[in-house]
Model the fold of this input.
Amino acid sequence: MTATNYHAIRHLLNQQKASLTALATSKEPYVQTQGFASEQGAFPLAPDIQVEKTTIGGIYGEWVSAPTIKADRTILYLHGGGYVRGSCASHRELASRISRASESRVLVIEYRLAPKHPYPAAVDDAVAVYRALLETGVDPKNMVVAGDSAGGGLTMALLQVLRDNQEPLPAAAVLLSPWTDMTASGESIVTRKEIDPWLASEAMTVAPKLYLGDADPKHPHVSPIFADLHGMPPLLVHVGTDEILYDDAVRLVDRAQADGVDVTLKVWEGMWHVFQAFAPLVREGQEAIDEIGEFIRKKWAVGVEC
Done:
C-alpha cells in the first residue's frame, strides 16, 4: 500500500467517524439508512464475477461467484453494519474477492435490521438461512460461515444455536474484526479511541441499545465473549491494531482457546476495522483475503469432521 493511499483512506474514514460521533450523541442516533451501501460498496465488481439474486429461508440474498469456484463449496456471509445497516450491495465486492480466494460460492444475506427488527431477528434469520441451505443439499462439511463486525458476532450466535440444538456445524468460521461485547467493556474502546480512524467509541454504547431492546447485553448470543464456546468449529479471526474493537477479537480468541476451540488469530499492524473491504486500494486488504482463502481451502482439503 502506498503512503498516499494509506493517509487518504484514513482521512476519509475520519470524516465518517466524525459523522458517527455526531449521530451517537444526537437525539435520533443511527436512524436506519441505505447509505451504508455507498461506504463499502463503491468499488466495482470484476467483470468475471457472477451475481445471482435469491430468496432462501424467507430471506433475500445474493450468490456471488468467481469463475474459480468449486460447485460443492459454500460460504454463508453475514455482513456487518452494527445490526442497523449493511446490505448485499455494501459487501458484494468483498464477497467476490473471498469467493475468488477460497474457490467457493458466497451467499450474502440481508437479515432483518434494528431498530425496526431488534434481537433476536438477525439470529433467527441467520439460522433460517443456514437450515434452508442444508435442506437444499448443501453439505455442512463443505460450508463455512463468515462475517465482519456485527456479522462476526452474529456468526458466533448462529454457531451457538446450531451446537445447542445438536445440528450439523459448518467446517469452519471466519470472523473479521468481530463485535463480540455489547457491554463495551474492552479496554481498547478507550485506549485506541484516538488511533481508530473509523469507529467512534460513543457508538459502542448507543448502537447496542437499538439492537438489544430488552435483551441482556451479556447474553451469549449478543456478546459471545461471555459464551460457552465448547464444540465450536475451527475459527479464523482477523483484527487490526488500530481499532477500538481490538479487545473484542482478542478476548473472544482467549475464550475460545480456553474452551478447547481450534482458533487462529491474525493481528494486522496499522490496520483499521474491516480493512479487507478496502482491498482494491489497500495491499494488506488483499493479503488478508488471500489468507482467508487459504484457510478455507485447507479445510476443504482436510475434510474436517464437524
Notes: The first strand starts at residue 50 and ends at 56.
